[in-house]
């Protein structure tokens, strides 16, 4: 890779090299499927179930950013949605595809960094992110918001789950500037109700609330110290 800086994008790429957790990291993370990782279970996030049951999200074309082993993508497809599910890790996409094949569900799994997606404007009725956003470095935040806006149809909806700031499971309590002083996201950044509303201020806020805790085993996933948000373009 050339190390010359001529454009703003060159600066972003340089900062990516400092902070982005590379593909081999995530491949290793997902390699052992028996690890005691809460979201390795095959159950959708409780908030997406709530959205569909309350008719806040309807069946349509869905993009999932950072789909992991596919538990939410499988839920969307099972509801009758047309699903594009993206992840950086080929290892987790293999696992997700095995789950989809076993359930006889059709999902278009895409092996890419989310910022490398070539999306036609206004393609999706619903964009979902479960645990990807808090691994996005501050310098990519504007690009992320623009990606979501571009992907959504008019009146389309976007939802996410992310670390609560200072939570037990993650949610680093550091400023954006401190990220670069430390050259680390500290395992994932934490957010508050106020910060999510500010970051996604270009979208209409429908709901920002704590994730409901779901005792396992269950057909839904919910853990403490996560925030959920639902927004509309």
Automatic annotation (TrEMBL):
Pfam families: Methyltransf_25. Residues 62-156 form the Methyltransferase domain. InterPro entries: CFA/CMAS, Methyltransf_25, SAM-dependent_MTases_sf. CDD domains: AdoMet_MTases. SUPFAM superfamilies: S-adenosyl-L-methionine-dependent methyltransferases. This is Cyclopropane fatty-acyl-phospholipid synthase-like methyltransferase.
């Amino acid at each position: 890779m050339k190390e010359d800086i001529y454009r703003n994008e060159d600066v972003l790429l340089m900062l990516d090299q400092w902070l982005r957790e590379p593909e081999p990291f995530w491949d290793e993370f997902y390699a052992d499927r028996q690890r005691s990782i809460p979201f390795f279970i095959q159950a959708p996030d409780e908030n997406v179930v709530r959205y569909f049951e309350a008719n806040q999200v309807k069946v349509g074309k869905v993009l999932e950013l950072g789909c992991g082993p596919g538990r939410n993508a499988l839920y969307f497809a099972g509801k009758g949605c047309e699903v594009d599910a993206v992840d950086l890790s080929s290892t987790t996409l293999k696992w997700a595809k095995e789950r989809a094949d076993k359930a006889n569900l059709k999902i278009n799994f895409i092996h890419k960094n989310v910022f490398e997606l070539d999306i036609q404007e206004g393609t999706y009725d619903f964009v979902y992110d479960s645990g990807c956003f808090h691994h996005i470095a501050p310098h990519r935040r504007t690009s992320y918001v623009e990606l979501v806006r571009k992907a959504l149809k008019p009146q389309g909806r976007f939802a996410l789950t992310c670390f609560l700031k200072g939570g037990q499971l993650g949610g680093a309590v550091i400023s954006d500037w401190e990220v670069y002083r430390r050259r680390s996201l500290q395992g994932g950044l934490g957010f508050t109700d106020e910060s999510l509303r500010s970051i996604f201020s270009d979208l209409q806020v429908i709901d920002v609330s704590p994730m409901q805790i779901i005792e396992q085993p269950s057909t839904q996933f919910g853990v403490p110290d996560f925030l959920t948000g639902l927004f509309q373009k």
